[in-house]
Amino acid sequence: MAFGKVITAAGVSAGIDLGLYVAGEIARAERAQIIQLIIECDPHPPFDSAHPSKASPEVLEAARAEMLERNRNPRNVISVPKVLWSRALDRVRRR
Model pTM? Predict the structure, then answer.
């Protein structure tokens, strides 16, 4: 709910909806839809583009381009395997 300069939300999904709403207000609805598609958020958000079948061709292409660009950064590519490796090592060390 928006109250002048204050916007509130309660709960995880509502927080995501709030973030998408704010992104739409700050950076345009298309940018919020791109974010929604990338994170695949589809409960009942303020934008309906969380799946490729629902996104407009422009949003779909922009999301693909952004994901490809992020994959070019070695830090992004290595972060998931690094986290999984750390968790595996932690499990072994606990034994």
Answer: 0.51
